[in-house]
Design brief:
By secondary structure, this protein is of the alpha/beta class. The protein has 32 helices and 25 strands. This is UDP-glycosyltransferases domain-containing protein.
């Protein structure tokens, strides 16, 4: 495999299309960088207006890109301007919806006509740019939609149509913009409790039945159902809502916080790491200023890229900050005040001279991760909130529009890391709330809670078993993956089904080079033997004959050995297990009825996170089935494998735990009705030989290939996602043991296809 920058016509080529606003471009660029790190050729498509803004803010060479990471632009359909400000959102939404498809299709045509880049194989588009779906469908390629708001806000958007059906929107007239009406209880959005109308994204607050934003949101959310998958920049923070979304959308994956995931995968000093997306020039000297401050001593103030306020509100915020007596870093965009330049009074500057820094823009991710920042006065834009949670920083919330009201509600009431201030800004309230945030008892509790969420965000992104790491990999494998249709006798394969050693960006990768060397040297052998049987893999074995010395299937070996060698003989007593087998599990199985026990064993090498172990445990517990579970001492990566005492109490009388067992005998025992396995080949073959259907959780090496054939070709398995959730474990194990699909799998496993191999 060559480097990313070697032209390879087989390389997958993703086109990434953000909505043309700062808060959408930033996370989409992170998705693009992550896909590039996975081996994709990337084309990133801005609007012409934002393309030019980026060149002005970051320099004339900022978008030169790399041979395998290129920037393109299409017109947004609005009148041309060179003013550095966020465009009118309703006008932008209407224009992109009506005017962008034709130039986008022309861009794709031009890309596919080139001979120096791979053809476009997939699209990742902002959920608000669904015109791209039409182009993807025309080309017959998959498209993943990226909804950049929080899951809670996206869930609210998905139900906008019901507000119209229920007569809650549009409002009859502006008299409905009262506290009484906005306090209307909304109790019918799944997994979102204690909501009021005021907590719903603000586009619902219109008196116009033809309101652009109301219609735009309903149209875009409905069109989302045509996507191959949906990704969200969130994590286990919003688990229940994401689960509810699964019933109304294509597969939904949490892949955030994206800035943490990108930090894990991409070095900041690399070519892709240096690519930026800020439409304003960052004043990095604020980091040096923060370095001089004590931990948790600075209030960071930033209202994002779109929020505007009146000159009076700016003044009230200023004197509230001054009155708090705290040090603060305040980002004041030139266009922060509606209709005029943002200017603070000279008296304020004099009053706060030795305890403040003002900037027009800053590197916010680094600011919120800085130890001196103890609180954040924010507009509750989702990127800002996620970066604050990831930094363990509590918030004072002043939501402006769109999804920010929903984010504020969850921030304050559900996640307990925020305090809201009224829209009618008063300096006395600002001062009071900031003092409470930085020094008060409530502020301390919020900081403790923020630290909990910070740890969860790290868990999701910082190791290979983290939920967001696994989910991103699943999106790549399941929904954006390259078809592999050129291996003889192996049909319907995708790159995800190939042994995992192929997934490297290093041309000198040890395992990749090792396998190429060893398979090449196999041609020098007198013959090749395989532990399989002809009826199972006949066509593949025949295809191997044309490229190797004579190939013979001589398996399943354990059945042939059992036929030829008595267990009580000297040779029969020779063993090879590196763990001591606990034979008492066979006595336990003898007490169980036929096909009643789930056997769980992930082999000798597979490791998982402590969280995944717990999810497997509670998923098994919830099935109410008897189970035999082999838990090696080293099953959890970097830690001892320990399951909760509550689980042991809950499953008392219907489980046996073992550190190792005689697996061949277990899988041939009549009590075993199903096998939860990593799909190592020995395990898969022993399961097939015993007529036992499988739930498959492949880990690495050839296990992905075994899983593919087990589930799709031999029809004796069902795969569960790498991001282990107890609900899925429960559902799939129940289906395996009692469901219609499980019944068909059992019949297939018992069909006697291997009887003739060792008779």
């Amino acid at each position: 495999m060559g480097s990313h920058d070697d032209f390879n016509p087989q390389k997958p080529h993703v086109v990434c299309v953000p909505y043309p606003a700062q808060g959408h471009i930033n996370p989409m660029l992170k998705v693009a960088k992550l896909l590039h790190a996975k081996g994709f050729h990337v084309t990133f498509v801005n609007t012409v207006y934002n393309h030019n803004r980026l060149l002005r803010s970051r320099g004339p060479n900022a978008l030169d890109g790399l041979p395998s990471f290129q920037f393109e632009a299409i017109p947004d359909g609005l009148p041309e301007t060179d003013v550095d400000a966020t465009q009118d959102i309703p006008a932008l939404c209407e224009s992109t919806m009506k005017n962008c498809l034709a130039p986008f299709k022309e861009l794709l045509r031009q890309i596919n006509a080139r001979d120096d880049v791979p053809p476009v194989s997939c699209i990742v588009s902002d959920g608000c740019m669904s015109f791209t779906l039409d182009a993807a469908e025309e080309l017959g390629i998959p498209e993943v939609l990226f909804w950049t708001p929080s899951a809670c806000a996206t869930m609210a958007y998905l139900h906008f149509y019901l507000f119209i059906e229920k007569g809650l929107s549009p409002f009859i007239d502006e008299s409905y913009l009262t506290k009484e009406y906005l306090d209307t209880v909304i109790d019918w959005i799944p997994s979102m409790k204690n909501l009021k109308l005021k907590d719903i994204p603000s586009f619902i607050r219109t008196t116009n039945p033809d309101d652009i934003m109301l219609k735009f949101v309903i149209r875009e959310t409905e069109r989302s159902k045509r996507a191959s998958a949906i990704i969200l920049n969130t994590f286990d923070l919003e688990h229940d809502i994401i689960q509810s979304m699964q019933s109304i959308l294509p597969p939904v994956y949490s892949v955030g916080p994206l800035h943490l995931l990108a930090n894990r995968e991409i070095q900041e000093s690399s070519e892709t790491g240096k690519m930026g997306s800020n439409l304003w020039k960052e004043e990095v000297e604020c980091l040096a200023w923060l370095d001089t401050k004590a931990p948790n001593s600075v209030v960071y103030v930033n209202f994002g890229s779109i929020t505007v306020m009146s000159a009076k509100q700016l003044e009230e915020f200023a004197w509230g900050l001054a009155g708090s007596g705290k040090e603060f870093l305040w980002v004041i965009r030139p266009d922060l005040v509606a209709g005029e330049e943002a200017v603070v009074s000279p008296e304020f500057l004099t009053e706060t001279a030795d305890r403040r820094m003002l900037a027009s823009w800053c590197p916010q991710e680094k600011v919120l991760a800085h130890p001196s920042v103890g609180g954040f006065l924010t507009h509750n834009g989702w990127n800002s909130m996620l970066e604050s949670l990831s930094g363990g920083v509590p918030m004072v919330c002043w939501p402006f529009f769109a999804d920010q009201q929903t984010n504020c509600k969850f921030c304050c009431d559900e996640w307990e890391v925020g305090m809201e201030i009224g829209g009618d800004v008063r300096r006395e309230e600002i001062e009071k709330v900031i003092r409470e945030l930085m020094d008060g008892e409530k502020g301390k509790k919020m900081r403790d809670k923020a630290e909990e969420w910070r740890r969860l965000a790290e868990e999701a992104t910082e190791h290979e078993h983290g939920s967001s790491v696994v989910n991103f990999e699943t999106v790549v494998k399941e929904h954006l993956d390259t078809v592999v249709d050129w291996i003889p006798s192996m049909k319907n394969l995708k790159l995800k089904d190939i042994p995992t050693f192929i997934r490297t960006s290093n041309p000198n990768d040890i395992m990749l080079n090792f396998l190429v060397r060893e398979t090449g040297r196999s041609k020098r052998a007198s013959a090749i033997i395989l532990n399989t049987f002809d009826d199972l893999e006949h066509d593949i074995i025949r295809s191997m004959q044309s490229i190797l010395p004579p190939v013979y299937s001589i398996g399943p070996l354990h059945l042939i050995v059992n036929k030829e060698i008595e267990e009580g003989s000297e040779a029969g007593r020779m063993g090879s297990n590196l763990w001591r087998e606990e034979m008492e599990c066979l006595d336990w199985l003898d007490t169980k009825t036929p096909n009643s026990v789930v056997y769980v064993n992930f082999g000798s090498i597979t490791v998982m996170s402590a969280k995944q172990l717990v999810e497997f445990a509670w998923g098994l517990a919830a099935t109410r089935k008897d189970f035999l579970w082999v838990i090696r001492p080293d099953l959890v990566a970097g830690d001892e494998a320990v399951i909760p005492p509550e689980f042991l109490m809950e499953t008392e009388g219907r489980r046996m735990l073992s550190s190792w067992c005689p697996q061949e005998k277990v899988l041939s025992h009549p009590a075993i009705g199903g096998f939860l396995t990593h799909n190592g080949w020995n395990s898969t073959l022993e399961s097939i030989s015993g007529g036992v259907p499988m739930v498959c959780w492949p880990f690495f090496a050839e296990q992905q290939t075994n899983c593919k054939f087990c589930c799709d070709e031999w029809e004796v398995g069902m795969e569960i996602g790498g991001d282990v959730m107890r609900e899925e474990v429960e559902a799939v194990v129940r289906e395996l043991m009692d469901g219609e699909k499980g019944k068909k799998m059992r019949e297939k496993a018992l069909s006697g296809e291997c009887d003739g191999a060792y008779a």
